[in-house]
Design goal:
By secondary structure, the protein is an alpha/beta fold. The chain has a single domain (2-229), classed as P-loop containing nucleotide triphosphate hydrolases (Rossmann fold). It has helices spanning 38-46, 94-100, 110-116, 132-145, 162-177, 190-196, 214-219, and strands spanning 2-12, 15-25, 27-31, 53-58, 61-65, 70-71, 79-82, 150-154, 183-187, 199-204, 207-212. The radius of gyration is 18 Å and the shape is globular.
C-alpha cells in the first residue's frame, strides 16, 4: 500500500493536463482514450516531464513541489519505469539486462524475481530472440532490481498477444502482493484494470472524469463499453496529449 499525493498541472503546447489524485492504494490504474494525458501523468511521476505547478509525493517522499522549489532528479526518485517502447540492451543476455539496473539500497532478491516473473529458462538468451511478453517480463525485472519505491508501467500488455496476457497480469499481482511494490500503470484494457488495480482514474482530454474502485468507477460511466474505441468521448475538437499516440489520426484521503 502506498500513499499517492498528486496535484499538478502539466502543459505541452496547446495541451494541458490537470491531475489531482490523493489515495492510498496498492495499484493505481490510469485509464482513458489515446491522447488523454495518461502517459504524461506517468512521466511526470517518473521525472521525465516537469509540471508547471503542483506537488508529487509517494509515501510522503516529495518528488516535486513547485512552491518549495523541489524537483528530485530522475536518478534519485527511486521509481522503476517500464515504458511502452521497451528498451533492452541487444548486446546483453537476459541476465545482464536484468542486473544492469541494480543500485545501492534495498532491492528484491534476484532469485525471487526470476521465479516470480518465470525468467529461469530465459536468463542466458539474447533479447533479440524474445517474444513481446518475454521482453515485458525482463523489463519489469530490470526495473524491480533497482529497488524502486514504486513501479511505473506504460501499457504493459500492449505488446503481448492475448494468450500470454494472463502471465503478465499474474506477474503484476505478484509484484503488488508478494514483493509489496506499489504500481502505477497506464492501460486502455478494462480487464487489466479490474484484475490488478484497487483504484482507477479515468482521464480524458487532460481532465479527470472519475476515480474510485475500478468496477464501481467503470460502471458509473455510461461510455465505458466503447471507451477506447473513439477519441475524447465525442467531444468536438479535443486537444490530444502529444506524448500519446492518437488512434483516430474507503481508500480515498481528502
Amino acid at each position: 500500500m502506498a500513499a499517492f499525493d498528486f496535484d499538478f498541472t502539466l502543459e505541452q503546447g496547446e495541451f494541458t493536463l490537470a491531475f489531482n489524485v490523493h489515495v492510498d492504494a496498492r495499484a493505481l490504474a490510469l485509464f482513458g482514450p489515446s491522447g488523454s494525458g495518461k502517459t504524461s501523468a506517468l512521466e511526470a511521476v517518473a521525472g521525465l516531464r516537469t509540471p508547471r505547478r503542483g506537488r508529487i509525493a509517494v509515501n510522503g517522499h516529495v518528488l516535486v513541489d513547485t512552491d518549495a522549489h523541489v524537483n528530485v532528479s530522475v536518478r534519485h526518485r527511486r521509481t522503476g519505469y517500464v515504458p511502452q517502447d521497451i528498451l533492452l540492451f541487444p548486446h546483453l543476455n537476459v541476465r545482464d539486462n536484468v542486473t544492469y539496473g541494480r543500485r545501492a539500497g534495498n532491492r528484491p532478491d534476484l532469485a525471487v524475481l526470476i521465479d516470480l516473473l518465470e525468467l529461469a529458462p530465459l536468463m542466458n538468451r539474447r533479447v533479440g530472440s524474445l517474444s513481446g511478453g518475454e521482453r515485458q517480463r525482463v523489463a519489469m525485472a530490470r526495473a524491480l532490481y533497482s529497488g524502486p519505491d514504486v513501479l511505473l508501467l506504460d501499457e504493459p500488455l500492449a505488446a503481448v498477444d492475448l494468450p500470454r496476457r494472463r502471465r503478465i497480469v499474474d506477474a503484476l499481482l505478484g509484484i503488488r502482493d508478494q514483493l509489496g511494490v506499489p504500481l502505477i500503470y497506464v492501460t486502455h484494457l478494462p480487464e487489466e484494470a479490474l484484475s490488478v488495480a484497487d483504484w482507477a482514474v479515468l482521464i480524458d482530454n487532460g481532465r479527470i472524469l472519475a476515480e474510485g474502485p475500478p468496477k464501481q468507477t467503470f460502471e458509473s460511466f455510461a461510455s465505458f463499453g466503447s471507451f477506447g474505441s473513439f477519441g475524447s468521448f465525442g467531444r468536438s475538437n479535443p486537444v490530444n496529449d502529444p506524448n500519446e499516440p492518437n488512434e483516430s489520426n474507503d481508500q480515498r484521503r481528502m
